[in-house]
Amino acid sequence: DAGVIQSPRHEVTEMGQEVTLRCKPISGHDYLFWYRQTMMRGLELLIYFNNNVPIDDSGMPEDRFSAKMPNASFSTLKIQPSEPRDSAVYFCASSRVADTQYFGPGTRLTVL
Amino acid sequence: GQQLNQSPQSMFIQEGEDVSMNCTSSSIFNTWLWYKQEPGEGPVLLIALYKAGELTSNGRLTAQFGITRKDSFLNISASIPSDVGIYFCAGLEDDPDSGGSNYKLTFGKGTLLTVNP
Fold it and tell me: Which of A42, B30, B35, B83 could staple B43 via S-S, CB 3.0–4.6 A?
């Protein structure tokens, strides 16, 4: 079975530009999670969805961040406008009703 | 919010040695998970623990869910070079207000393991 798929794997952009990260969860998983990983703060949950509905977005840093899940097989995390402090690795993870989350390979974002 | 204290931060060991790392929390968790992350990859689930006192093995890995539900440890026996990576603990606390469907994992800061051949 294919795991969680994320694209792009690497993204380099300039401050002020819009960035869109994409995720395809494992088929049949009802939960989808977006995380951010930095050296300073470790892994942080940004937002998660259940059956395509956002359940908790309290981890989203600010209004520049938004996430959508238009269907069960696709989600996006958008940053507009991007800032250098947004540089991090962004992970998508999915799970069934159980609590074991499976992570994608991540998108390494660099904002210059 | 919840915080997990994971120790040690890093370990440098010789191939063949056993490794032990642990996580403690100020709050109770209902589930403990252990993940391994290799460079350029996402965390991979190693072991999941669901009951206080539970001891679970996965090959050379053994993890235990502490009786107080505030801690967990992971042991790796007879380490090999491919064990190199960052090991994360993660805890899950059901939110009573959500009827037990809250899946917000709290992660430790990780233990960086280096194995010298």
Answer: B35
CB contact under 8 A, A48 and B48: no
Cα–Cα distance for residue pair B54/B63, rounded to 1 Å: 8
pLDDT at B104: 77
Both structure tokens of B86: 């960052």
Please answer whether residues A25 and A92 qualify as being in contact, where contact means their C-beta atoms are separated by less than 8 angstroms: yes
- Of all residues in chain B, the percent with pLDDT exceeding 70 is 90
Euclidean distance between CA atoms B20 and B100, whole angstroms: 31
Task: From chain B, pick out residues whose CB is under 8 angstroms from the CB of A105.
Answer: 40-42
pLDDT digits (tens, 9 = 90+) for B30-64: 899 999 999 889 999 999 999 999 999 999 999 99
pLDDT band at A23 (very low <50, low <70, confident <90, very high): very high
Query: Of B105, B111, B112, which to mutate for an interface test with A (greatest number of A Cβ within 10 Å)?
Result: B105
Which whole-number Å values give the CA distances from B58 to A68, B1, B66, B75, in the listed order?
36, 31, 18, 10
pLDDT of residue B81: 95
Minimum Cα–Cα distance from A4: chain B residue: B42
Interface check for B64 against chain A (CB to CB < 8 A): the answer is no
Distance (Å, rounded) from C-alpha B40 to C-alpha A89?
Answer: 9
Q: Does residue A33 sit in helix, strand or coil?
A: strand
Instruction: Say if A14 is an interface residue toward chain B (CB within 8 Å).
Output: no
